[in-house]
Specification:
By secondary structure, the protein is an alpha/beta fold. It contains three helices and ten strands. Helix 2 packs parallel to helix 3. It is globular, with a radius of gyration of 19 Å.
Length: 235
């Protein structure tokens, strides 16, 4: 017969496993979309963007007339961090971790539907994205870095500095997809998410930030797949 201690340990493991499974199945259950968002200037021209519908980005533009099906490669620019006066205290090392994490997430998701390349060329998309700090933001120096995708573990942002809490619990992302040769804009979006604290006490507050970045990476990849007329692979 199993001892009481063994049974308690087994139950604890089961509860933890269910919690992890719920997190992955829920996608971005720890964050929710806000009702408004500020433009940082990263995209330059916002005149094409309109309010999104449903679970789309808050501001969105998609060139429905483009031959999306012809694109089978994507070049992902290094992710940058744009800060405002309210978020200018972010540590450089922490900014690097955030930009690397988002780049890795984008690479992971987009590689499910097309080849990721480092050079422009025919039938190749170009994706550029930034984590932004609101209106009149400025790019953080020495953050732009191309990284080699590597396995990311749950809560990899948990060790970031307390001072970088300016981004904890909320994040804004701006992204643009263009033809890598002609620079024709094919899609662009701005979105902002805040933490719901659903898993407060189980994960650090940085889990909200990580969940938001992972959510956006998957949504971008799913949108590209939809425009190409292909099914996004199930995990």
């Amino acid at each position: 017969m199993l001892s009481n201690a063994y049974m308690r340990a087994s139950s604890a493991v089961a509860v933890w496993s269910i919690a992890l499974l719920a997190l992955f199945l829920a996608g971005c259950a720890t964050t929710t979309q806000t009702r408004s968002v500020e433009k940082s200037g990263f995209l330059g021209d916002y005149s094409m963007l309109e309010e999104g519908e449903g679970d789309e980005a808050l501001l969105l533009y998609v060139d429905e007339g483009a031959d999306w099906a012809s694109y089978d490669k994507v070049r992902i620019d290094s992710v940058t961090i744009w800060t405002s006066e309210a978020t200018e205290d972010i540590e450089e090392e922490d900014a690097q971790v955030l930009s690397d994490h988002f780049y890795n997430a984008l690479h992971e998701q987009l590689s499910k539907i097309m080849e990721v390349t480092s050079t422009p060329g025919p039938n190749t998309l170009r994706l550029r994205a930034a984590i932004t700090g609101g209106e009149d933001a400025a790019v953080v120096g020495n953050v732009i870095t191309t990284v080699v995708p590597q396995l990311r573990l749950l809560a990899t942002l948990g060790g970031l500095a307390t001072k970088t809490a300016v981004f904890v619990g909320e994040a804004t992302v701006e992204a643009e997809i263009t033809d890598s040769i002609t620079n024709r804009r094919l899609a662009a979006g701005v979105d902002r998410r805040i933490g719901t604290k659903t898993f407060r006490g189980m994960f650090s507050d940085w889990a909200d930030m990580e969940a938001a970045l992972d959510y956006w990476a998957e949504r971008i990849a799913r949108r590209v797949a939809s425009q190409k007329g292909i099914e996004f692979p199930k995990d």
